[in-house]
Design a protein that fits this description.
The protein has 7 helices and 8 strands. The chain has 253 residues and is of the alpha/beta class. The protein has one domain: TIM Barrel (Alpha-Beta Barrel), CATH 3.20.20.370. Helix 1 runs parallel beside helix 5 and helix 3 crosses helix 4.
């Protein structure tokens, strides 16, 4: 099977950058793309307070939900409580990893209650900072969520009693095969980023699938080959992050 792509937007909340989002949404709608919207249901993170809150946020989100866009639970309040990098080992900060099971279960239940009050039933969990642990997965399952958007696999797999829809890239790249989720943070978009996003979506539109399509591809348990690819991709990503961090430090001197 040729490569397939999913598009995911993190940090969706009432105070995000709506001026940038308007242009993003125009591109998505023009090409019939149904992205994953990773929503912070009760945002308390000041870094996500970009513009005045949109008063009709939940009405807007319900409209997207009813159109078939995927709504993801992007944590609860987007506040980091630990320095635990969790299962992925990418970022040493977390809203969930390292916390007791009951505390994690409580957070997820509160997050879902907000969505349910608004008539929205999220289908997938998206951990802030890619940080979660095995207790997070148990807490998710006990609250009815069995799909996560994360991990460095080549295609969707079943592992630890949940379905993993891998998320490996932060911009489109032509790949020969596999299922690839591109994660965007539109609050940080420059005009150049917007232009590139529009070009990439136009180029890859025929290969972009929905979360439901991806879940149907999770037809097997995780294999040894999956874990080999996972570890290689993880090492490459961590090396890239380390190099970028060194470069940023040198620029600041």
């Amino acid at each position: 099977m040729p490569a397939r792509y999913l598009v995911r937007f993190d940090d969706i909340c009432p105070t995000m950058s709506w001026s940038i989002w308007q242009q993003v949404e125009q591109t998505l709608c023009a090409h019939g793309v149904r992205p994953i919207l990773a929503v912070v249901p009760d945002n308390k993170d000041s870094k996500l307070q970009i513009e005045p809150p949109r008063p009709d946020f939940w009405e807007w989100l319900r409209e997207k939900y009813n159109r078939g866009w995927t709504i993801g639970v992007h944590g609860y309040q987007h506040l980091y409580e630990t320095e635990d990098a969790g299962l992925l080992g990418v970022n040493a900060r977390s809203e969930f990893a390292g916390l007791p099971l009951e505390r994690q279960r409580e957070k997820i239940a509160k997050a879902l209650a907000i969505f349910h009050q608004q008539g929205i039933r999220p289908q997938v969990f998206v951990a802030p900072a890619h940080s979660f642990d095995r207790n997070t997965l148990i807490a998710l399952r006990s609250n009815g969520i069995e799909v996560i958007s994360d991990g460095f696999f080549l295609k969707p797999v079943r592992w630890l009693e949940v379905t993993w829809i891998p998320q490996q890239m932060w911009q489109f790249r032509a790949m020969p095969f596999g299922v690839w989720t591109i994660c965007y943070h539109h609050n940080r978009f420059s005009e150049r980023d917007l232009q590139r996003f529009a070009r990439d979506v136009a180029r890859f539109a025929s290969s972009i699938i929905s979360l439901e399509d991806a879940v149907r591809l999770a037809d097997r348990a995780r294999s040894t080959g999956d874990m080999t690819f996972y570890r290689l991709w993880q090492k490459a990503l961590l090396l890239k992050l380390r190099v970028k961090g060194i470069a940023a430090f040198r620029r600041a001197q």
